[in-house]
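Support request, please re-run this one:
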Amino acid sequence: MATGTNIRTYFEGRWHDGDVPIMRAADHGSWLGSTVFDGARWVDGVAPDLAAHCARVNASAEALMITPTVTTEEMVEIALEGVKSYPPEAAVYIRPMYWALDGGHLAIVPRENATGFALCLEEIPMAPPDTATTLTRTRFRRPVLEDNLTNAKAGCLYPNNARMLAEARAKGFGNALVADAMGNVAESATSNLFIVRDGVVLTPIPNGTFLAGITRARHIANLRADGVEVRETVLSFEDVAEADEVFLSGNMMKVTPVTAFDDRQYQIGPLTRRARALYWDWAHAN
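Re-run finished. Output below.
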């Protein structure tokens, strides 16, 4: 099912209009879930960190034992060619993806050099700057590398995210704040987490249980370059409750302010706004 509108799909070496079929019933990716993807954005004539997102989908494929077939440079070229067909004011989500076509050993291991590739473009507007969300706890946790593919942006991870979100929505909240295997805060169900306390920006230290995002890294670099202290550290749910500001970071919307965590209320604060401003200043300068 499509998320956005005005879809274009690059598949089998050429562009197609619309949400075209790309998988067969017997593809390994269809019945055994060997799919990886990444997401980048085209907004106001720029595609921030597009090459990094394309490189990461290749790394994700390798982590899932799928053979990448398109170089980072080729993928960037395909994406930039595709967005030329959209109006200048369009905000476009860029989604390259791979899946295994055939099974190898015991049909379970993906066979080498048998890979499907597509790149899908969809118009998805950016949220207005003050669009915020709320967080609550969830009983579901982030996995560890020993029992899941936490080193890949893999489709098989997302049903766990979905049940976190469904639980949060049932409680009247917009997103879930998720613990790692040790009970420390990892991220939300969809995005990396930042909190602000006494003018210092804090974010969970990457420990292999969640994907430390490309946009997350960009915010850290931008804030530090602007003279803001940013610490990667272990955070508890109590730390989040005691924060002055909370915001989420992800490719889809870049910065999403948080206005509540369970009973705790927050204002959209100056460092949240600063992180967004710095991001777009960087994006248009590079």
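The chain has a mean pLDDT of 96. DSSP finds seven helices and 15 strands in the chain.
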